[in-house]
């Protein structure tokens, strides 16, 4: 029974520590207990600061009191009537307080001491007040001789930093370290959830945020996010299925059309319709590629030989280049270049790059496919190049520079960008100095990752 009781007690206590607030409060109680040891020192410093502030306020109040004793007669004569209660305070015999009263030109009118240098001195601290009486402006300066200040107060101020003040630096450092530790421990489950969320994308809509270690206050938010991800996954699945179904359904009518076109007697009409059907077939094939790409989930350990992929692409697309009086050549590394990726998807991406280059390169020129030992593929053509404004637009789906052309739907380069994103690769385009464009794909080397 005792064992059951202890287990029940642990089950009751554990949920409270799953709360983010309870964790922070509990750890801060410990931190406050430590800080309480040093709190008197901080109060001691505040007391010293308050003494200085009160001193400045008192000096200013004295200056304002003296200003009230100034009078300007009708004939312009200035008088200063100091009551007996204040004469002893500013007497030279007492020697603690001094005052100077000057006009707006700086001429000394009244003073409590015989020195002509004024009250300004390194050993004197005071206040300066400007007062307008009638049409005349006066400057009243009141100061206290620091050598006559209270001895205890003077010692506190002069010895604070030398004996006590230095301790504030390590206290602040300790508090900073404590706060960092507290919040790191408190939000560690949120970091783990964030890492999990960073893997969510169009190709990985099945990932959900964990709720086991999440603080109680954050659980409703995580649950709502997971429910939203469920709805998004359903929407993606419907969209992908529609694209795939539409593409599959279009293949059969296109095959029938191709067969019927072959029976036409007019060669010119037959060839024109044949070209149109081939263009539509290519669009359907690209739609299927996009649908497959959207559902692709890469195995982190899957590798492919980038050079073998390019050899396959160049061999399969060479007849297309020759038919258009163009050439295609494979250059670069002679040895296998192993990268992380899916062979078939890499082949589709590089095929689309090569096909795009053949489309835009001039007749009797060559398209170069160069494989780099660093995991890069460069496809160069001798076409018109790509303007700066179009370098991001060309990777968007259905974007075409010339809307009048019917030899493509603007899907090829979007497939290249999709494959690059799924492989954590980069794709870039630059213009060559002698004319033409260079598309560069960079993948992660399997050897470097290992």
UniProtKB/TrEMBL annotation:
Its EC number is 2.7.13.3. The chain crosses the membrane at residues 20-47, 164-183. The keyword Membrane applies. InterPro entries: HAMP_dom (IPR003660), HATPase_C_sf (IPR036890), HATPase_dom (IPR003594), His_kinase_dom (IPR005467), HisK_dim/P_dom (IPR003661), HisK_dim/P_sf (IPR036097), Sig_transdc_His_kin-like_C (IPR004358), TCS_sensor_his_kinase (IPR050428). It catalyses: ATP + protein L-histidine = ADP + protein N-phospho-L-histidine. It comes from the Bacteria. GO terms for molecular function: kinase activity. Residues 245-447 form the Histidine kinase domain. Residues 184-237 form the HAMP domain. Its main location: membrane. It is a multi-pass membrane protein. Keywords: Kinase, Membrane, Phosphoprotein, Transferase, Transmembrane, Transmembrane helix, Two-component regulatory system. It is found in: Membrane. PANTHER family: SENSOR HISTIDINE KINASE CUSS, SENSOR HISTIDINE KINASE YKOH. This is histidine kinase. It comes from Bradyrhizobium campsiandrae.
């Amino acid at each position: 029974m005792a064992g059951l009781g202890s287990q029940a007690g642990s089950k009751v206590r554990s949920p409270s520590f799953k709360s983010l607030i309870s964790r922070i409060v509990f750890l801060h109680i410990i931190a406050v207990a430590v800080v309480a040891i040093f709190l008197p020192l901080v109060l001691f410093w505040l007391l010293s600061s308050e003494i200085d502030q009160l001193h400045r306020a008192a000096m200013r109040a004295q200056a304002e009191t003296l200003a009230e004793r100034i009078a300007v007669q009708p004939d312009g004569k200035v008088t200063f009537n100091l009551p007996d209660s204040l004469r002893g305070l500013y007497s030279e015999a007492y020697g603690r307080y001094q005052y100077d009263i000057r006009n707006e030109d700086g001429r000394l009118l009244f003073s409590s001491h015989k020195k002509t240098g004024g009250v300004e001195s390194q050993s004197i601290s005071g206040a300066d007040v400007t007062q307008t009486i009638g049409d005349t402006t006066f400057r009243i300066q009141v100061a206290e001789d620091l050598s006559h200040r209270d001895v205890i107060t003077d010692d506190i101020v002069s010895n604070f930093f030398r004996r006590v003040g230095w301790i504030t630096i390590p206290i602040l450092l300790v508090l900073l370290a404590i706060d960092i530790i507290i919040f790191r421990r408190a939000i560690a489950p949120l970091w783990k959830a964030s890492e999990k969320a960073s893997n969510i994308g169009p190709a990985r809509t099945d990932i959900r945020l964990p709720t086991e270690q999440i603080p109680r206050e954050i659980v409703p938010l995580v649950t709502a996010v997971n429910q939203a991800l469920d709805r998004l996954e359903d929407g993606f699945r419907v969209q992908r299925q529609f694209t795939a179904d539409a593409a599959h359904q279009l293949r059969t009518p296109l095959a029938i059309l191709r067969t019927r076109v072959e029976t036409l007697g007019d060669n010119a009409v037959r060839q024109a319709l044949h070209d149109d059907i081939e263009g539509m077939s290519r669009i359907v094939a690209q739609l299927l590629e996009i649908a497959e790409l959207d559902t692709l989930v890469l195995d982190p350990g899957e590798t492919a030989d980038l050079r073998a992929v390019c050899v396959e692409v160049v061999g399969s697309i060479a007849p297309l280049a020759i038919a258009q009086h163009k050439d295609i050549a494979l250059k670069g590394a002679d040895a296998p270049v192993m990268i992380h990726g899916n062979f078939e998807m890499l082949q589709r991406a590089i095929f689309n790059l090569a096909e795009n280059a053949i489309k835009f390169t001039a007749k009797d020129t060559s398209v170069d496919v160069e494989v780099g030992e660093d995991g890069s593929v460069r496809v160069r053509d001798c076409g018109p190049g790509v303007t700066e404004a179009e370098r991001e637009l060309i990777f968007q789906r259905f974007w075409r520079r010339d809307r009048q052309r019917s030899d493509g739907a603007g899907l090829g380069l979007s497939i290249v960008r999709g494959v690059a994103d799924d492989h954590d690769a980069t794709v870039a385009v630059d213009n060559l100095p002698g004319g033409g464009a260079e598309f560069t794909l960079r993948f992660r080397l399997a050897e470097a990752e290992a």
